Amino acid sequence: MPSDGCAYAYASISSAFGPNDNPVVRVFINGYDVSTPTLQLSVAPTNLQATKLTIKITIGSQTNLKRIWLSWLAFSPATASFGSYGGQVSQSQYSGSVSSDISNSLYSTPYVFYGLNLLSLVRSQAIAFSSSIDNNFVLTVSASAPVDSFSLVYIAVGVLPGQHCASCGSGLVANGASCVSSCPVGTYAFTYKDGGIACRVCSSKLGMILSNNRCIPGSVTSSSTSTTTTIAPAASSKSEERAASTIRAPTIATASSVSTASNSNQGTSGSSASVVSTTSTATTSSVSTVAQPARPSVPSVSAPVVTPTVAPVVTPTVAPAVTPTVAPSVSSAPTCPENSFYNGN
After folding, report:
1. Are the CB atoms for 145 and 124 separated by under 8 Å?
2. Domain limits of the chain?
3. 3-state SS, residue 198
């Protein structure tokens, strides 16, 4: 593929979406083969006509791309039998390890898909880059050396919170894989958008602790004789309910109005026939310390474990029902207006 240019990959879906389906399409970089130390690469779905999906691949001027492997996911939320949400996280000059809350409309699910759709590495030193999403929907991205820029797309699908205990009688709420009459110690009841209630925990990865049935910034240290709880002042406290990363979805030119992800992350699957796939702490110096007798250890809430991992080349976790395939063909585009590195929009 020529440098400082673009090409297109084409894939076929098994059946066309309806005119009112408004399908969601996500594309992930599964792998690449370059012959240069500099890597600048992005992918984005650009068109869906009937069963033909077009994916644009754009590279930087100092990148010699020989081959690329892609995964893609397409489904219609309007006709799906499951709930879903997603977003995208983009950063420049990124290094270290940062965790962020991407929880939204789902309580727990084993079906979380995420991966890179843009990556820029212009330095020649070796780098370890990884990302993960835990069962509390906390996304952690780590890089051992500065990454010029990256964009990660994520999408989660699963049973809506209100349906977890719908068949177990009234007054019960979801607690992990069980339905209980009240949330156990160390958890709090959270009401979701669909009216469902479930027991949640405060993530230590986000520097949060449970106080008065809500999550606030703080930390807890324990010993054999006492437990000390340090709480940040109320002015800096925040409710646990956070807005999820905003999905910025440019429109794919298509007769069936396709919504796609761009620069707010992959990370869908379900049993619906509509699913088609190939593939935040500023604290002040003022704190209060409360000492109290030792108490038994707080039980933790265990939800279905989501442990996808992402290597330097990200391969999104795919549910068993989804069968990934490599985009069948990549060919140079005769007309490609961009002559600089494309950011995936």
Report:
1. no
2. 6-158+302-332
3. strand
